[in-house]
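Work through this:
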Amino acid sequence: PGSSLTNCVSISSNTGEESETDNSSCVVTRTPDADLEVERSCDPDTAYPGTVPGGTVSTVWTVRNVGSVPVYGIRLMLSRSDGVSFVADDGARVTIFDERGEPARPIDLDGASISGDLAWERDGDLYVLGGRLPDGISQPYYRAIGLKPGQWLRLATSNRVDDTVEKGTWIEHEATVAT
């Protein structure tokens, strides 16, 4: 993530030198970059065994900070195929993990760990990290909640395939993550 700038310098002389090996040097400067990725796992995941009209599809969305700087104000926008309706999610309590898979804490704008429970605020198919506490109290400062590089979290959703969907119809779930 980020860009890199390589700066090189060489020096030479008309007079004799003892060694030519120390006449040049290069340095790489990297610029910081925010980079979020979202991955999806689904159950059932394929057409066989698949699900039937009236059946349930469970999806787990993993949001990961793969950038080189903390990211704040994380929003996850989900989309579903026609004929698929929302049933439930586990966004009332969010667990954040570090790159080793150990539980971790989110950070504030100063980089300090935030204590207490964290939840996704759901508005239709839009989820905002930290927009609401588990007890339903709105948090207007959600943009001040961040993930360090390497940290990740999950959101599980459950969806019902409507009875009117024809057998053999391909069901797709997509997501966009942004700040």
